[in-house]
Amino acid sequence: MPPWVGPVADYLAGGLRETVLLALVCIAASLLAGVLIGAALTVPSRPLRGAARAYVEVWRGLPIIITLYFIFFVLPIIGIRVDTFTAAAVGLSLWGSANTAEVVRGALRSVPRGQDEAAAALGFSWTGRMRYVLLPQATRRALPPLIGLVVNLTQQTSLAAVIGLLDILEASQRSIERLTLSGGSSHAVPILGAVLAVFFTICLPLTMLSRWYERRLR
């Protein structure tokens, strides 16, 4: 085994831990906030529905990289300073929650209207109808696109490298630079190949799960 492999592997392992932690935080925050905002898109109150729609359109419409730059580089100008991990987690969660909200809204709208009307006739409030009637039925419809969104969000964590977060991509880039400076050879192919293999190993099972569940629903 070449002598550079061990140190690089340890460095990439640290970056992988950061990537996995970031992905888990963003997925949890996106699902929690997205379900609430998606439900708000169906409320009778027009102002609340409008506020939820504005949130979705803004954060879905902005490129993630612009959001990351704004949080990390612009907010400090007005006195709000955050570290790279927090900036990446907030930026990715804003995008993820907006997309989750749209998935949830579509799933809720796909439930037959008669279900909602029947629950209302039985005296259920909007909250009760949402909790006991609409969300349980919408969950089955929302699962395949939500799994796909989880895969996409995991892949998008690589963008955190642009603000300096030491994730697996940033760790690989620094390793290539160090090897180039110290030995004249970057070994970029095996290093980036390892990064590719990691993302492929994480995302492929989720993609296959989404396709399997979608076929089952049919």
What does this protein structure show overall?
This protein is mainly alpha-helical and 218 residues long. It has a single domain (5-217), classed as MetI-like fold. It has helices at 5-40, 46-61, 64-74, 84-110, 113-121, 126-156, 168-183, 188-217. Helix 1 (5-40) packs across helix 4, helix 5 (113-121) runs antiparallel to helix 6 and helix 7 packs antiparallel against helix 8. The relative contact order is 0.14. This is ABC transporter permease. It is found in: Cell membrane. Belongs to the binding-protein-dependent transport system permease family. HisMQ subfamily. It holds the Pfam family BPD_transp_1.
Looking at this protein, list some descriptive labels:
elongated; 8 helices; 0% strand; 218 residues; MetI-like fold; mainly alpha
